[in-house]
């Protein structure tokens, strides 16, 4: 071996190198840093759906504070849409790369379902108030 040639590392014959020794590590990429904001948006969106369903049931019965629940459901749903949009805007990879793009899209769809459930409850609660 000369001074100009790069050293080569070979395993001794008869012994195999562990598979983990051949794994390359990407520089500066932790492979999934965008999941947190999209999961937070999804949690907010699911809460909005729960609030919307509860407000819709309360408005249908004419019992409870349906108006407050409906307003809370719609506001939380809009917050979920905004959080999902921010997470989507900050995602730098494609769907399936771990950047949170797919999760933020799902969060926005679920939050829109929260709006769809909360808006009729708000309209019903306005009619029921005497």
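-> sequence recovered:
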């Amino acid at each position: 071996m000369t001074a100009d040639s790069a050293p080569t590392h070979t395993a001794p014959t008869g012994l195999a190198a562990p598979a983990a020794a051949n794994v390359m590590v990407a520089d500066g990429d932790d492979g999934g840093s965008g999941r947190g904001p999209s999961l937070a948006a999804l949690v907010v969106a699911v809460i909005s759906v729960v609030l919307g369903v509860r407000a819709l049931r309360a408005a249908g019965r004419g019992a409870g504070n349906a108006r407050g629940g409906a307003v809370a459901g719609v506001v939380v749903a809009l917050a979920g849409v905004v959080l999902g949009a921010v997470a989507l805007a900050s995602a730098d990879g494609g769907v399936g790369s771990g950047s949170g793009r797919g999760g933020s899209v799902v969060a926005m769809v679920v939050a829109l379902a929260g709006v769809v459930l909360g808006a009729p409850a708000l309209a019903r609660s306005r009619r029921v108030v005497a």
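Helices lie at 35-61, 66-90, 101-128.
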